[in-house]
Amino acid sequence: MASQNIEAIRACYAGFRDRDVEGILSGMHPDVEWVHPDGMAEYGLGGTKLGHAGIKEFLAHVPSVLGGMKLNPREFIEQGDRVVVFGTREVTSRTGTTATLDFVHSWTMRDGKATRMEDIFDTVAFHELIES
């Protein structure tokens, strides 16, 4: 049986799968920090977004840069207040090119809700896909 923390994160991934923003946010504290590599800043996808409003703004911007994305979380590792998720994402550029890219998501939890999510991935491969 999965822990409360892992269940909260699984609910977030289910929200991504279902394209349900409220589902994505269901496992996150209202003051969550949503962190993406600074190397994605030129596309408006880098840096730290704050709170549910910041995440909603970020998610609303993604379709202006990408044609689509599907997350496939594969492994969940929990240690203390941290859950690390290893997975892949199928990303489609606005021109229709699709690639499968690895990710690591590091989630910091408090009281069964995420207070921070850091998305770790190969920004060079992501840039190449966006520009394809």
What does this structure look like?
With 132 residues, the chain is α+β, with helices and mostly antiparallel strands. It is 30% helix and 45% strand. It is built from 4 helices and 6 strands, in the order ααββαββββα.
Q: Number of DSSP strands?
A: 6
Content-based structural category: alpha+beta
Order of helices and strands: HHEEHEEEEH
Rg over alpha carbons: 14 Å
Shape: globular
List keywords for this structure.
132 residues, alpha+beta, six-stranded mixed beta sheet, 30% helix
How is this fold's topology laid out?
Layout: H1 4-18, H2 21-25, E1 28-36, E2 47-50, H3 51-61, E3 66-79, E4 82-93, E5 98-110, E6 113-120, H4 123-131
Parallel strand pairs: 1-6
Antiparallel strand pairs: 1-2, 3-4, 4-5, 5-6
Summarize the structure.
With 132 residues, this protein is of the alpha+beta class. It has 4 helices and 6 strands; from the N terminus they run ααββαββββα.
